[in-house]
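In keeping with the milestone schedule agreed at the kick-off meeting, the structural modelling team has produced records for the first pair of proteins. Each record is given below as a sequence line and a structure-token line. The laboratory manager (R.T.) confirmed that both were archived under the project's standard naming scheme.
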Amino acid sequence: MQEEELTVAHAPFDTRARLQVRGSSNSTRELWFRFDDLDAEGCEKLVELVISLFPQINAWLREKRVGPNISAIQC
């Protein structure tokens, strides 16, 4: 299998996490990033928000540290 063919399903379950507007163990709609009905300015602000969360993503990937916007999947 080639690297570009890998999906999240290939990752061990206990290493998976979700990036959400607010971290939570549930998956309710209000916790997800919404991009429907956004104009260009709203889309740009959403992208900036996600970019600002990259340090939390790195902390999860490197140290399994759960930040305020990271939801670790519970086994």
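The second protein of the pair:
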Amino acid sequence: MSSKGELRRQFRTTSAALANHEIDLSPKVSRVVSGYLRSRETKGPVACFHAIPGEPDLKTAILELEQDGSEVAFPAIAGDGLHFYKVENIEKSTDHWTDGPYGLREPNPKLAHEVPLSQLDTVLVPGLAFDRKGGRLGRGKGFYDRALQNFKGTKVGVAFSQQLSKEELPMESHDIRMDVIITELGVHFTRERVL
């Protein structure tokens, strides 16, 4: 089995290639995400993310969620933790966003409303790679692993199909597994069906 460091190097290369790819698969991923979210039995608040290069851009799914009346939250880094904030009128509220660490676009905590993690129904999680058992390889800072440690809702890994590892990813005791993995090819439930 490859080490996390080796796999991170491998999937960073994959991520860079995806960022430079001429055919953007993000709209396909966004459609699958949107279909999955609309099929859920519960329609509680959803935490999304703003993509960085090499991650699926979920703008279409996010706007559809908002149009459907769903509450949408986004993460912001505070120290070594993540907090989630609701931004009203996502596309038009340009002043409600700020540039956070690591090149992330985040809600401005001074202008957005914080949503406690316990109130979220579903969290969409980016990553460098995922496996079919729900294993996730993040960028090495552990923000999502710490934030989702006691999360009772549904954890959904979102990636391109090229970011699905053929081998099981190494997992440590603090690493959080996803319940669902979504790529442009469809929805994969890692355990019993979760809606």
